[in-house]
Amino acid sequence: MNHTIGKTMAVYTATGIGIAAFLAMAFSAVAGLAMGGETGAMLVKQFGVVLLCGIGYGAPAVVWTNDRLATWAKALIALVPGTLMYTAAAWWMGWIPRQYGASAVVWSIVAMLACTAVISAICGFVFRGNVRKMNAQLKRRQARRDGR
């Protein structure tokens, strides 16, 4: 299989999973509104948290379009708001197991930060590969234009 086709398939698959997850959460929120009660309220809250985290990670990612900032600054700006929003949402939703004491809270937050770092590293490698490919294409065009 062509390496480019495999990478493209992975990107489209990830996008499809994201769309499916959003739709599933949206339908769960509608069902939660219809059913009411404690379970219904939890489903609606979870949809709100999904939206909040999506905005928290998605909106600041526009910083990657800025060519003037250092990569470390872009990463910080892109990740910190979403991570803070997710941590607050996880605390509010009860996803961080406070009932088991401080060590469970600390380990939950450490695990969350580690997952964020791994996902960010994967995205960074994908973005870096795309930049290298674009740079190679620009060099080929430049060479053709210069008659080399």
TrEMBL record:
One short Pfam family name for this protein? DUF3021
Keywords for the protein's UniProt record, in alphabetical order: Membrane, Transmembrane, Transmembrane helix
Q: Which InterPro entries match?
A: DUF3021
Membrane-crossing segments per the record: 12-35, 47-65, 72-93, 105-127
Record's keyword annotation contains ATP-binding: no
- The identity of this protein, by name, is DUF3021 domain-containing protein
